[in-house]
User: Fold these one by one.
Assistant:
Number 1:
Amino acid sequence: MEQVRAAVIGFGGMGRQYAEMIRDGRIGGMVLAGVCCRNGQGQELLKKEYPGVLVYRDVDEMVSRQAEYDAAVIVTPHASHVEIGLRMVEAGKHILVDKPAGVCAGEVRRLVDEAKKAGVSFGMIFNTRMNPVFRKAKELVEEGVLGKVGRAVWICNTWFRTPAYHHSAPWRSSWKKECGGLLINQSQHYLDIWQWILGMPDQVFATMDYGKYNEIEVDDNVDIQFFYEKGLHGTFVSSTGENPGVNRLEIWGTKGRLTVEDTSRVILDENEMPTDEFARVNQEVYGVLKHHAREIPVEEGSNGYQMVLENFSKHLREGTPLLADGWEGLKAIMMTNGAYLSSWQERKVSLPADEEMFLAELKKRQGM
């Protein structure tokens, strides 16, 4: 296709940003055909500020008028992502889904499979992958700069939230409507980055606090251990109740340590020789392996959301590979489901986790 006619589903904070980008011509090869907004006030605003853009009252109306657009950008509360995605896929529309892909891995897998059967594209809005520091970190790890990777630790507790946030929308911070808290919401981007750089873990053990910092029923503090058959051991720590926060990813290998600090700097500490080689040749009781640190230059960052939308447009028009497809979204949900199940059952869980068991445990918390 020469031009992608996109319809945005959901006109909240992020949906409005995406709609503005497309409307203002900032996404090459893409035009804003319509916006789906159930809110009457939002509909009136759209009619006033988005002349020529179609306004849909709900997804049913969108399906009944499917000839008017080619692709849907889904930016609704995430418990509805799979349901809406399936409606669009059944209508033969390409989909670009905001994080997370869904709630249960089994449901997301169905969406991935149905999109493939229908011959439509399924992309994820994982804009954090566009951050130059994470792209550089992935490049260095894949080049073998660290040697054999054995440990990774990520502390990312920059998500401080107060009751004002938790009360900002009726679907937030509950098992029934949001289906989780910190892990299913804020942590999705970094769980994606984790597996994007280090690969999918084989097992997970998680401890979580529920309503530790605010009067909510869902998780607001998480400590996760990831285990790999190849020997890598990872620790992921996050919270929405600690301030000041820090965002620091450290990866150790036989050749040194890689640090991504505050999503803006990449620092490489290089050993003078690999640790396993030094262990063979060193004859001193307290032998010290020297290392040297240097900051790795990275390119200047651009708007990650815009880059994802432009990639989706190019993918549909020119066949450019997606930056993150539905399968990548499924991986993050598999990690999330496994971590929740581990916390609830207080045991180490193999990935992928038992999907029926996860769903049964979630329904208990939803009172179903």
Number 2:
Amino acid sequence: MTDNNLYPNVVLPMPPDYYADIAIEAALWLVRESRDAIANKIDFVPDPANYFSTFGRLPAIRELEDLTEEQRFDMFVDGFRSFPDGAQHAFEELLTDRREALLQSFRECWKVVADAVPFP
């Protein structure tokens, strides 16, 4: 009989683009949740069940596009930290050890998202 606790849970390192994609989607989720809380006059408590919802995505993208790059990157980081995906430790290491690579991935991945949206 084997003991399943012999090996610690470890998230293997992934390329920065992997984390950037998750962070951007998480930031969009936070913006959507925030907009819903304001519209419904309720406390802001992000519901992870709504993470995969696409309803309200376009206004959320437009709101993030109106931010400065630094503010948008902060939203990406906050979004990743807010979503319980189990890779926060690896993300934090990437954020400190390879920050510039992560920021470049944010730029590239955000460009794909923002370019897919028709802006007036």
Number 3:
Amino acid sequence: MRRVTALIVAAGRGSRFGGPLPKQYALLGGQPVLRRTIAVFRTAPEIDRVLVVIAPGDAPHYEAATAGLGLPNPILGGASRQQSVLHGLEALAATPPDLVAIHDAARPFVRPADIEACLAAASSEGVDGAVLGIPLADTLKRVGDGNAVTATVPRQGLWRAQTPQVFRFGPLLAAHRAAASLGAVETTALTDDAAVAERAGLKVVMVAGSEDNRKITTVEDLGTMHMETRTALGFDVHGFAPGNAVMLGGVAVPHSQALAGHSDADVTLHALTDAVLGTIGAGDIGKHFPPSDPQWRGASSDRFLRHAVDLVTARGGRVVHLDVTIVCEAPKVGPHRAAMVNSIARIAGVSADRVSVKATTTEGLGFTGRREGIAAQAIATVELPGS
């Protein structure tokens, strides 16, 4: 199975942006642009690692924007985009991927399907890389002194390059190392990785992308997003099995038994995962993490909830509130409630005041009343861009 790393370039200063923060850390619909960009790549099926390149001095901004995502330490960029990408590639060289997808942090609207199309094209026989882009549709004019039109430029065969730009790792690293020996002026002229690859004689193909994959350049590009509110329910049940603790909300709660299940059987996180998935019509937890798949045996359920939240973020949305009710006779939830709230907030990437954990019993009735297991019911509230 091929290994694919996404290298997110977030080292630029964005001099045209004009906001109080670099554009990759500005808020878009309540979340940092960088966090939204990362979320898209985390939901792309073939991406198995995400690494971010940041500017020296941006560590506090980066940590705030990526809190709870569990990413590796960022790589410090250089004086130019080419140098920043090279720093990122060198950091990957010890355990090199087969393909590397290089993407601008300021393009948070890229579609997972377009990422997959680039990966497929870059994997084609005889191809070294693939670039997402748009064929030019407008008439082009060359302008001289006094803004006088001097010529009409044929647009046939001209494209606007976007990112991601996907390459076989070895050839691209070699191309960037060769480019690093150029003078500062020449290096600055290499405005994207395709230009570096072209200079090295690599074969790069274009892949048709989407106009939605726009790059944020000014504060006005953030726009005013119309958001709609959605809610959905989640419900889950697990029976007891031999053990000495149950997982509830990512917290190991001591008990005379454990919960039975293919993963860690965290009934609370499972109910929350289904609720979040429901807000975007993405099916249920079994669709994304089939119990028949051995890789999820004993898996920590925080991965399931994080995945669901990332799907919402990739759609341009955000989690507003998570509410879950745990139904059981024992163990007592109260002593562990605060720990559960903090755990769920960390996993979902929200503040603790956006999480509610409650508990109740069925007064001795039903399977929970007979102490045969635990049930959980959850409600998720999210905001998504409206149509």
Number 4:
Amino acid sequence: MIEHFIRNEVAADEVELHEELKRLLNGSVIYHCGPVVKQDEDGNWSFVAAGPTTSIREEVYQPEVIKHFNLKGVMGKGGMEAGTLKACGEQPAVYLHAIGGAASLIAQSVKEVLAVHKMDFGVPEAFWVIRVEDFPAVVTMDSHGVSLHTTVAAASAEKLKGLLA
């Protein structure tokens, strides 16, 4: 997204996709997920597993992605850091923590695959457009500057300090 749509001029053959992603993502959520999918004989896709991937590796890009696509949420596991938290306040948006290790359970929330773009990137990196219901996730970073990840890390460090004393 950064290379193709945000930091560089959109290539002529990707203008339509860029506009479609802007439309789809406007006010929506990006889920950091490398799904396991299957395709039936009619060509329809379904999710077999939809576990979250670690979000922190996207930290360097996430503020730009949130702003460019007018996201209202980013979801994954492990949390994000100051850049994403700041972007959540400016947008406003939230970070949702999905449950690691529950890929089969989460896949039950994916009711429909509406579209898939950039399959040439491979299944895990393609842009999957999905409709979900009752998705199990918790807001852990909000638009008011609160991060449960920071709170838990500080409390854990304090507890460790006491244990080591």
